[in-house]
Structures are given as C-alpha cells and as structure tokens.
Amino acid sequence: MDKETLKIINREIGKQELSITQISELLDFDRTLLTKFLNGNRIPNIEVLLKLLNYLFPETHAAYGILKRITPYLKSLQSLKIMLEMARLNRDEKTVSAAANILSNASLQKDKEWADCYLLWQEFRSGNLDKDKYLDSILTISLQSDEMKAFRFIALAHFHYAYSDHKSLANEYIEKAKLIIDTLQPGLIKNSYLARYYGYKSQIALSKSVKPDDTSLQYFYKSNEYAISELMVGVNYYNLGLIYQHHDHQLAIKYIKKTLSILKIYTQYDSSLKFFIDYIEELIPRISILANDFDGIKEKDLTSTKNKLIYNIKMGNETKARELLKGFTDEEKENDFIMYCQGILESSIPILMKCLSRNIEVSQIYETPLPVRALLQLGIDHSIIDAMINAKYGDIKYYVSS
Questions:
Q1: Which of 77, 136, 199, 335 is most solvent-facing, going by the fewest CB within 10 Å?
Q2: DSSP string for 27-52
Q3: Distance between CA atoms of 34 and 39, rounded to whole angstroms?
C-alpha cells in the first residue's frame, strides 16, 4: 500500500480518543492484524477493513475514497470482487477497470468471469456497446459462479426495465436473480445484490402506481437497508421523489434534494452525473410551481424555459406563456411536459389525451396525474381514463381528483 494512504489512515487513528487496543475491541478487529495493516505490512479483506474505515471516516464516500486507493494492492480475490461491485455502483470506471484487470489474470474461470461481466456492463453504460450486442452478450456469456449468474439476471432485469418494450420481463428476470441471491454466502456482495433486487421491485411496483403504496415503500426501505453505496440510496430517493411529486410536493422535494447532495459527491468519479444534477436542479422548482407553491420562486431566477412556461401559465400570464410556447420547435413540443403545458394553455382535450396516452404507453403512470387532472377539469369522465389505464395495466387502483 502506498505511503500517502497509510499516512491518511494513521493520521485519523491519531485523532481518536481510543487506543489501538480499544479500537480493535470496539470494532471486533484482530489487534495483530490491525497493527500490521497500520504498518503497511498486510491488507485485511474489504469486509473487515470497512469496519475500520467506516469508523474513521463516517461519510461513506470518504471510506470509499480510501478503498479505491488500496485497490491496486489487493490480493484477496473476494476483496477485488467487492471492489468491482462498489465501483460499479459508484460509477467509478477507473476502479472497475483496475479491479477487473487484476481479476482477469485469476487462475480459475469462475473468478475471471467477474472481470468479463463487469467490463461488459461498463462498455454498455459508457456507450461503447450498442443495446443489441450487449443483450446478446449477457444472454450468451458462459458463467460458472452463482454470483455472476445472479448478476446476469439483474443485468437483464435492468435492460428490460430501462430499454425494452417488454417491461414485464424485468420482473421475471429479477425474480430469477432472487432465487440465486438467496443461496449466496452472507456478505457485501449478497447485500448489494439484495439491494438491487428490492430497488428494481420498488421501481416496477411504482411504475404501475400513481402514488406509493405499502408494497412499493417496503421494497424501497429494504433496498436502502441492504445498499452498500450512497449513490444507490440517492437513486432510490430520486425514484420515490418522482412518485410523490404530484401528491406531496414538499416530501418529494425533500427526497430529491437528498439525491442531489449525494450526486454532487460522486461527480468526481463520473462527470456525466452533472447532466443528472442539472436536470434535478431544474425539476425542484417545477414541482413547487405545479403544486401552486410559489414561495421564494421568481421568474427571473428560473433558468429553464419549461419552468418559465408553466410558471406563466400558473400565474395567468397567457400572452407570455404563448410567446414562450412559440419558442419550442415542433420536435420539442413532442416532449410530454411541453405537450401538457400546451394542452392546458389551449384547453385542448386531444393534446392532453395524447399526453396521457404517451405516459401510459411508456409506463410512466406516476406522471399521469398532470394530464388526468386537466382532462377531468375539462369534463372528461373518470371512467374513460380508468379504461385507458386498465387496458395497459389491468385492474389497478387508480384515482386522481380534479
């Protein structure tokens, strides 16, 4: 391990009021092993090491920062596998590559295949592998370890949830993953895979709900309970915020702001998260405007034309709103939110029906309260809306008042 990392760790040890012996007893960390580690003579496995790092660096991202510095010196294959998963969750491509490169030289295929699977995922996420090739590779890659067989099903669940028209397959694959996950040895890998299982179950449940119910909320809490990455917790909060935005806007903003604070930390590993941050910073004031909560919101502070459009509609400035609407191209007007704004500005049932149909078709039922409320106010009977939604999802509980 490099001397600078050792200095950082020993400096934090020196700040503690407890002695080395007391720290080892508190953390159930072998005293001899701890001393060897602090002297740079031995690196414990990650599951043990995290006890110490989480104690010294209470913020998860700080502990991870130390772990990634240690990665090139890891000898334990299990520790390298855990680093692959943690780096993947944190969108840290450099550390994924570093751990994968070491694992690719393992003597057994059941260890080498971890590198193959995680690098395959990374190639797809970075845009270097198209959807069809990625799907074919995930389906056909030969795997020996139970962990990577579970990884395959998790990857397939993600693919069909995010990129496929066959979203029902997402649930089938994630349940296949769960059967394998249940057989894995306890530890960080199993916990992370369980977090991903419950995370997808929550998203699948929420995609068919107009607001959170007990089932989807339990999945959400379970996912956060098992999560080994702050970034995954942030994504969970974001998904929950999206669902609450049309029902309890203050709670929605609270959740989404938690996501925002976490994302800003992890841009150091993935600069593309900046686009997500920009979107969220645009979304937060829009949620308040849609809820007719204008406290602290002024048009001059709104940087998004979409937000200026809905602000002027809500404030009754129709002339200004129409001017803003003209500034969008025909292609931009196909955006669901702009379509909704145009529909309420023009009191157009056809445009709002198109907006609602689009939400239903792409499984964004949580977005439907906007066009539904506008349609109800224009006199459309709730039974018509129920029929449209149930034709896609079956007989589900759905009610939005005008």
A1: 136
A2: HT--HHHHHHHHTTS----HHHHHHH
A3: 9
43 to each of 1, 21, 47, 77, 396, how far by Cα in Å? Answer: 8, 18, 11, 13, 53
**Tens of pLDDT, residues 337-370:** 999 999 999 999 999 999 999 888 776 677 788 9
Contact 224, 184 (CB under 8 A): no
Q: How far lies 147's CA from each of 16, 85, 101, 115, 253, in Å?
A: 38, 11, 19, 12, 37
Token pair belonging to 267: 């841009």
Query: What is the spatial distance between Cα 315 and Cα 353, in angstroms, rounded to a whole number?
Result: 24
> What letters, b where the CB count within 10 A reaches 16 and e where it falls short, cover 205-217?
bbbbbbbbeeebe
For the record, the structure tokens of 323 come out as: 């001017």
DSSP 8-class letter at 334? G
Please enumerate in sequence order all residues whose Cβ is within 8 A of that of 389, keeping only pairs 6 or more positions apart, or say none.
360, 365, 368, 396, 398
d(CA 170, CA 168): 5
User: What are 5's two structure tokens?
Assistant: 């990392």
- Give percent above pLDDT 90 in the chain: 71
Contact status, residue 344 vs residue 352, Cβ threshold 8 Å: yes
For the chain, helix (H) and strand (E) counts, in that order, are 22, 0
299-301-304 Cα angle (round to 5): 80
φ/ψ region of 295 (left if φ > 0, alpha if ψ in -120 to 50, else beta) reads beta
Which residue carries 């809306």 as its tokens? 385
